[in-house]
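Pilot study result, target chain (298 residues):
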Amino acid sequence: MPRAMWTGAISFGMVTVPVKLYSALNRKSVRFHQLSGKTGVRIAQKRVDPTTGEEVAYQDVVKGFEIAPDRYVVIEPGELETLQPKKTKTIEIEDFVELSQIDPVYYDHPYYLAPGPGGAKPYRLLLEAMQETGKVAIARVVIRSKENLVALRPMGDVLGMATMIFADEILPPDRLDEVAEAAEVKTTKRELDIAKQLVDSLAGEFEPERYSDTYREEVLAMIERKAQGEQIAVQPTAEEVAAPAPDLMSALKASLDAVRAREGEQGAKARKRPAAKKAVAKKTAARKAAAKKPTAKS
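Predicted structure:
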């Protein structure tokens, strides 16, 4: 059973909804420790003053903001505490907006909100109201001494909450010179038509379970083989040679033909399967009929 990482309440208008916060992620990354290549022992990380070579105790470490090379403004822990947002147990809803108005670039970390003690009825009421109106709630909440902008939205029978990135933290794409140059390029109607056909031929329903982290799977498989004593042969890295850029129209046509050929093969396999089943059924029926025929008495 997952453990709630935060408990509090959603507040909108005069309504209060007790909730519990759970992380919606279970990261699957492979973590490595740093070891000594000579002894195989895990390396200890130490805080060392380079001017004296002595280790600095944790209680003697202070925060410094660099204002120039090797010049810092020192901030004491107590000074930061006076600026920290007031710790509350409330998710304060400020606005309701359309989901389509929020660019996914603003989403950060996903969570689930479950009803807290006595909160089942108002929780369900808020969930259904947001489902019916198609709205997303924009709110503020303090988690671990940090104020977060969050978005609340229905996700089936649960309320989802995602922390959001503030607007001034998003880099505008117009700062990229390559994007500006690409905007000046003109395409032909024929190129666009074939590109649209290629998109349509690859279109389908989003099925998240179809995608997996193949690199992580290969790393874990290699670790398992090494743990069992298998020697891993390191292949030399081939030097990459830049291939000439293909003609755009030829590349589009070749891609479209490849997709159609693949779909044709899949369709042929699907058609063969029923035919094969019919053939097997006919043979089975013939054998049964032969078995039922009376044998001549000697």
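One observation from the pilot: Helices lie at 77-81, 120-133, 177-183, 189-202, 214-227, 248-292. A full batch analysis is planned for the follow-on phase.
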